[in-house]
Automatic annotation (TrEMBL):
Pfam families: NMO (PF03060). InterPro entries: Aldolase_TIM, NMO. Keywords: Flavoprotein, FMN, Monooxygenase, Oxidoreductase. The keyword Flavoprotein applies. This is Nitronate monooxygenase. The keyword DNA repair does not apply. The lineage of its organism: Bacteria, Pseudomonadati, Thermodesulfobacteriota, Desulfobacteria, Desulfobacterales. Signal peptide: none annotated. GO terms for molecular function: nitronate monooxygenase activity. It comes from Desulfoluna butyratoxydans.
Length: 344
C-alpha cells in the first residue's frame, strides 16, 4: 500500500501508532516499525532530555525502520515547557524520522523557531488535531501532515464531539498536506474506510495496547477483549474545557468518582489523586482496571483478541484489501447493479 503517508514517513503500510504514555516505549515502537507500520516513542515516558536520547538509541538498536516520537504539548507539572523544548531539540539532533505533536500547536506553545528547526534537521512534523480549524492552522504554519481525531478516540478528544466519519472528509477537503484518520480505528475495515474517506492512512492506539508486545498486565488484555464500544466515558471537562478538550477513558470506579467530584464542583486538588499519571502507570503493570483513569477509545468494542503486532498488521492489510475489493465489486455496469451517481 503506497500513499502520501508511506511516502512521507518511509514506512511500508499507512498505519501509525498514536502516542501512549507509559506504553509506547522502545520495544513496542520497534515491534510496530518492524511490522511495516510506524511505531511511536512517547517522550512523556521520560523525565529528562538524556533519558529520551537513550530511548531513541534503544529503539534504533531494535529496528532500522522509521518511527515517530510523540510530544504532548499540554500544560503539565512533570513536563514543563522547557523540558518539552529540550525533547524537541533532542529529536532534531537525533534526526528522528518524524514528530507527532498532540495538544497546542508548536509555534504557539514551544515557540516560532521550532518548526523551522525541524525542517532544517529533516524531521517531519505531524500535528494531531480535533477540529478542521486546527488542521488548517497546522498547514499554515508548516506542519508536514495532520492527524484528525474524532471524538471516538481514547485520550483527549476535542469538546466539539464530532465523529471521525465527518471530520476526515472535512479536513481532506480543507488541507493539501497528508491526512491521517484517528478515533475508532482498529482493523482492516477501519483502514479501508479511512482511505475511502480520502485519508492517506490511519493512526490507532487502543488496538496496539491490545497486542502481546504492549507490556501491560494480562488482566488489562482480558478487560480490553471484554469491554464494548459503550464502556468508555467522557469526563474532566471541568479541568480541560479551557483547552477545548476532555478525557475519554474506560468507565470504571475511578471515572465514576471523577464524575462525582466534577458534579460537586471539585477542583484540581480534589481530582489529582484520582487522575494522576503515576496511578495509571502502576495499573497497566499490576492489572486492576478499576483503580486508575485508563485512557481507552471506543475502538475497544472492535477488539476480540491479543495478537502479536506483526500478525495484527498483516491481518489488517489483508482485511483492508478484501474490503476495498468488495466495495469495488459493487460498482458495475451490469444490469441490476447499483445506479451510478447522476444516472436517471
Ligand atoms: C493508553 C493510552 C495512552 C495515551 N497517551 C497519550 C499521550 O501520552 N499523548 C497523546 O497525545 N495521546 C495519547 N493517547 C491518545 C492516542 O494517541 C490516540 O489519539 C487515541 O487513543 C486514538 O484512539 P484509539 O485509541 O481509539 O485508537 C493515549 C491513548 C491510549 C489508549
Amino acid at each position: 500500500m503506497k500513499t502520501r503517508m508511506t511516502d512521507l514517513f518511509g514506512c511500508r503500510y499507512p498505519i501509525q501508532c498514536g502516542g501512549m504514555l507509559w506504553i509506547a516505549e522502545p520495544s513496542l515502537a520497534a515491534a510496530i516499525s518492524n511490522a511495516g507500520a510506524l511505531g511511536n516513542l512517547t517522550s512523556g515516558n521520560y523525565n529528562s532530555a538524556d533519558d529520551l536520547r537513550a530511548a531513541i538509541d534503544d529503539t534504533r538498536r531494535l529496528t532500522d525502520k522509521p518511527f515517530i516520537v510523540n510530544i504532548t504539548t499540554m500544560p503539565s507539572i512533570r513536563l514543563p515547557v522547557e523540558l518539552l523544548q529540550d525533547f524537541f531539540r533532542v529529536c532534531c539532533e537525533k534526526k528522528v524520522t518524524a514528530l507527532e505533536i498532540a495538544g497546542a500547536p508548536v509555534d504557539r506553545f514551544l515557540g516560532p523557531e521550532f518548526i523551522p528547526m525541524a525542517k532544517e534537521a529533516g524531521v517531519k512534523v505531524l500535528h494531531k488535531v480535533g477540529t478542521v480549524k486546527h488542521a488548517v492552522h497546522a498547514q499554515k504554519v508548516g506542519y508536514d501532515a495532520v492527524t484528525i481525531a474524532g471524538f471516538e478516540e481514547g485520550g483527549f478528544p476535542h469538546m466539539d464531539n464530532v465523529s471521525t466519519l465527518v471530520l476526515v472528509p472535512r479536513v481532506v477537503s480543507e488541507v493539501d498536506i497528508p491526512v491521517l484518520a484517528a478515533g475508532g480505528m482498529a482493523n482492516g475495515r477501519s483502514l479501508a474506510a479511512a482511505l475511502s474517506l480520502g485519508a492517506d492512512g490511519i493512526m490507532m492506539a487502543t488496538r496496539f495496547l491490545a497486542t502481546r508486545e504492549s507490556g501491560v498486565h494480562a488482566n488489562i488484555h482480558k478487560v480490553l477483549m471484554e469491554k464494548k464500544e459503550n464502556d468508555t466515558s467522557l469526563n474532566l471537562q471541568s479541568l480541560l474545557s479551557a483547552f477545548g478538550l476532555q478525557v475519554r477513558a474506560l468507565s470504571n470506579t475511578v471515572m465514576r468518582q471523577v464524575a462525582e467530584v466534577e458534579q460537586k464542583g471539585g477542583d484540581l486538588t480534589d481530582l489529582l489523586p484520582l487522575i494522576s499519571g503515576e496511578r495509571a502507570k502502576a495499573v497497566w503493570k499490576e492489572g486492576n482496571a478499576e483503580e486508575a483513569m485508563l485512557t481507552i477509545g471506543q475502538s475497544v468494542g472492535l477488539i476480540e483478541d491479543i495478537p502479536g503486532v506483526d500478525e495484527l498488521i498483516r491481518r489488517m492489510i489483508e482485511e483492508a484489501r478484501q474490503a476495498l475489493d468488495e466495495a469495488v465489486g459493487l460498482l458495475s455496469d451490469d444490469e441490476g447493479a447499483l445506479p451510478r451517481k447522476n444516472s436517471a
